[in-house]
Amino acid sequence: MDRQSRYKDFSAFLAAHFPFKVQKLSVNAGFTCPNRDGTKGYGGCTYCNNQTFNPEYCRTEKTIAVQLEEGKQFFSRKYPQMKYLAYFQAYTNTYAGLEQLVQMYEEALAVPDVVGLVIGTRPDCMPEELLDYLSELNERTFLLVEYGIESTNDVILQRINRGHTFACTQETVRRTAERGIRTGGHVIVGLPGEDGKQALLEQTKALSLLPLTTLKLHQLQLIKGTRMAYEYERNPSDFHLYSVDEYIDVVIDYVEHLRPDLVLERFISQSPKELLLAPDWGLKNHEFTARLQKRMCERDAWQGKYYI
Ligand code: SF4
């Protein structure tokens, strides 16, 4: 088995959909978050950086179309044939009235060479009327709705002040996938209270049962100015921050227990260096992936090897 085929890779997934190269372009549409303004909760998730939650930054002067055009310019010099997916990434990208949301998504889709949308949001922020519209949208373009799941354990979700339960995630992921919409999930590995390998393997079982198309994993990062950073200073023994090598083996154990057809998009996140407290790996995504694939070969590991 070669390195690349050891897990279901996101670029191969895109290549199966599009006969051309596709790049995600992040868009900041100026959304806020219901877990901060009291609609779902106050204070936000404990790992989320309050400093980046800056209304000036959110209320960006640039329209969605301008942001996408600028992103296109960056890539098109090197890859003139490239097409794009508009990635509504920052904050909660379904947190507005239906009319406003439709206008924003349609503005992105009207930009030449934008061939689809990726919409990141919280599982408690997906009303039926929006799903009605997204089902129709899904018929005419590529659509992926990505939910912040973060953990499958309600005690941990409460501890990090997520403001929703795993039952909420299960229900929303099912409602979305039932409409035929590609549904993605995002989880953080190493949250406080996550009790070692067994807990993560329980998580792989719960996630594999959901009708998810894609999954992103991220290592826990402590970001300056967050409530979690404060908790860490007070009680560092409550946290286990992985070294790169340790994390690679944890990810491999995890992937070996996942449903084999789940598309794996990412394994790490990279916060800006000036905001990152720990762990400082200094690794780019492709460098991590290369090390992961090498280690998978050494261990003769593959996705779903132990999936039951
Ligand atoms: S992580 Fe997302 S849901 Fe949580 S407080 Fe930050 S913006 Fe809101």
Automatic annotation (TrEMBL):
* Coiled-coil regions listed: none
Give the domain of life.
Answer: Bacteria
Which co-factors does it depend on?
Answer: [4Fe-4S] cluster
UniProt keyword annotation of Lipid metabolism present: no
Entries under InterPro entries matching the protein: ELP3 (IPR039661), Elp3/MiaA/NifB-like_rSAM (IPR006638), Radical_SAM_C (IPR032432), rSAM (IPR007197), rSAM_horseshoe (IPR023404), rSAM_sf (IPR058240), YhcC-like (IPR005911)
Provide the Radical SAM core domain boundaries. Answer: 17-261
Task: List keywords of the entry alphabetically.
Answer: 4Fe-4S, Iron, Iron-sulfur, Metal-binding, S-adenosyl-L-methionine
Q: What Pfam families does the database record attribute to this sequence?
A: Radical_SAM, Radical_SAM_C
Check the UniProt entry and state the signal peptide residues, or none: none
Q: Cross-referenced SMART domains, in alphabetical order?
A: Elp3
- Name of this chain's protein: TIGR01212 family radical SAM protein
**What species was this sequence derived from?**
Phocaeicola intestinalis
